[in-house]
Write the structure tokens for this entry.
Amino acid sequence: MDGLQSQNAGVGGIAEDAEEKYRALAYDTALSTLVAVALYVVIKVSLDGFRQWRAKISVLVVGSGPVGLTAALVAVRSGKVLKLTVLDERYRTALLSRPQQIALDPRSVKFLLGLGVDFDNMEGCWHNDHFFTRIGVFQEYLLSILEQKKQRVDVKVQLGTKFTEDYLRQIPHNNWPRVIVVADGSCGDSCSVLGISSDYTVESCHAYGANATIERLDQRQVPTPEIRAHSLYFDLSAYGVEAFREHRNQTTKPGFHLKIYGTFRNRYMALVCPASDTKMVRFLRQTAHSSIMKNIFHQSFNAYKTDIEPRLNDVTLHHMQCSRRLFEIQLSHRRISAAYIEGDNVAVTVEGEAARVLNFDTGCGVNLGMRGLESMGTFIYRTATAVDQTDILEALSAKMLHSRQVAETFKQTGLAESMYE
Ligand SMILES: Cc1cc2nc3c(=O)[nH]c(=O)nc-3n(C[C@H](O)[C@H](O)[C@H](O)COP(=O)(O)OP(=O)(O)OC[C@H]3O[C@@H](n4cnc5c(N)ncnc54)[C@H](O)[C@@H]3O)c2cc1C
């Protein structure tokens, strides 16, 4: 009996030993698998991180207007660009001597501050948190910043150089940029050079407007704050339109909004009203008689101009050009604002007025272009660190979606911000 018990105890001991060993083996295997997986993850993450950190691309910006140069600044600040080429068909003098003023709204100012733009070092003036400067002053400032970045990034600014098929052909194939930013303005044709469709979606902003320009060579070309006036009505009784009875009617929409902007030398005016079918609006939309509009702008200018500038008289009025009638304000935006050139592995994005443009000048036009650039940094980062074509296509579709959102938001709130408030 004792012998059997000790035999059983021996067998039990062997079984326990085997189980112990089995458990130890399973534990070792699990541990080493875990260590291997952890090691793999650490190495992969480090290699990906290293690859992303090292990833740098070459970028070409077509057009050195305010939007193209800001896009160039975003590119050099992204840390993902090795080589940047900026083109403009205009020579330096022509590029920097454009007379119009630009008005950067608070959101654009914040965006540009984030890019290192120092407004204290730029000729211009502040009013209502907007910064007003001449377009040429802004462009010159950005060109000087790009010049300073030359130590860190290979920056080439080629003024007097048009982007054409010949230009593209001359780039050696192994030197093609990975990203092309087309910012060649509302009249540029670089998209067609790249084979990008020029189809636009044209959408109503549900408002009517008219613009006027006055050139007064004896006045100063200095940045000047804009003037806004609201709820205006005009006396058109001489033309048989009784405005008085209409604007007392509660159901009619509020009257016209006026903006006077630009330098004292190049004065611009914008007149806008929400779409409505009042007698006055109908009359101004249907009657193409430049003297009526001229008269309205003339009276409005003299009523709302700054005290220190001269009134418009019959002689200066002669230098005023204006719309012949009220027209429907429409925003056109490119159906295709980003594209992939497959054979050459190039991602193209279209920005500024080349991507979307109003048929009405609000005096704040540049801000629409700046909105589009808010997704540029991420786009460059994603393109530079893309592992494959799918990553690039995803980056492009995100860029295109953002471009559409910019247009949509403008349609809903853009005129309110730039004209009605
Ligand atoms: C009369 C007027 C008054 C305005 N007033 C105001 C205002 O008061 N406030 C405001 O904010 N905005 C104003 N604007 C609007 C403002 O000027 C534009 O919003 C702004 O210039 C658009 O910038 P952009 O860079 O998209 O295009 P652009 O400024 O038009 O720049 C495009 C550049 O691309 C270049 N280019 C074109 N084709 C090629 C090519 N094939 N190769 C190389 N280069 C090329 C052009 O030479 C140009 O320099 C005004 C506009 C006008 C016309």
About this structure: The mean pLDDT is 90. The chain is about 45% helix and 25% strand. Residues 62-68, 87-90, 95, 100-103, 135, 162-163, 183-185, 188, 190, 261-262, 268, 352-353, 361, 363-366, 369 surround flavin-adenine dinucleotide (CB under 6 Å).
